[in-house]
Amino acid sequence: MLPSNWGDGYRNVWLGITAEDQSRFNQRWPLLQQIPAVVRFISYEPAIGPLCLPKKGPFPDWLISGGESGGGARPTPRTSLQIAVVKVWYRFINSWGSYRNNPLVVEKGMTIEDAKALDNFGKGGGLVDGKLVREFPLPVR
Q1: In the chain, fewer beta carbons within 10 Å around the N or the C end?
Q2: Handedness of CA 126, 128, 134, 139 (dihedral sign)
Q3: Number of domains in the chain
Q4: 61 is in which domain, residue-wise?
């Protein structure tokens, strides 16, 4: 579906895929690797299952991750986000999806109200180990 003059890609266009778990990543990432782009990224949203990047690259330039939101949102395993972000230089944690998934509630035993007061970044908060992780890549290709 790329235009006929795509060539090595456009400087102002970043290409990405959604991968909500390992099977979706394994299905879609090999296809994206084959397309020339200034930045290739993974949207690991909603993070509903573990995601491990390959031990050898190429790796995505950017990984956006976040939990599922809404009334029937499934839990976001904290370990899923930690494993996925290790090999990607630029990371963007969008949100935990809901405060019941927030590590301050799940791991620290805080009330949802207390977690909201400390971590009000996005739906369900966005802090990882007390730090807001919202980095943007520079076009490198």
Answers
A1: N
A2: negative
A3: 1
A4: 15-97+127-132
The pLDDT tens digits for 102-138 are 889 988 999 999 999 999 998 888 888 888 888 888 7
pTM (two decimals): 0.81
Q: Which two tokens stand for residue 136?
A: 């943007």
Count of CB atoms situated within 10 Å of the CB of 109: 8
Question: Over pLDDT 90: what percentage of the chain?
Answer: 37
List beta partners, residue 95. 66
Q: How crowded is the C-beta side of 126, counted as CA atoms within 13 Å?
A: 16
Backbone region of residue 137 per phi and psi (left: phi > 0; alpha: psi in -120 to 50; beta: other values)? beta
**79 in a domain, yes or no?**
yes
Residue 53's identity, in one-letter code, is L
Domain contains 9:
no
In a domain, 138, yes or no: no
Contact 37, 140 (CB under 8 A): no
Q: Is the peptide bond before 54 cis (omega within 30 degrees of 0)?
A: no
CA trace torsion 107, 134, 114, 67 (10° rounding): -60
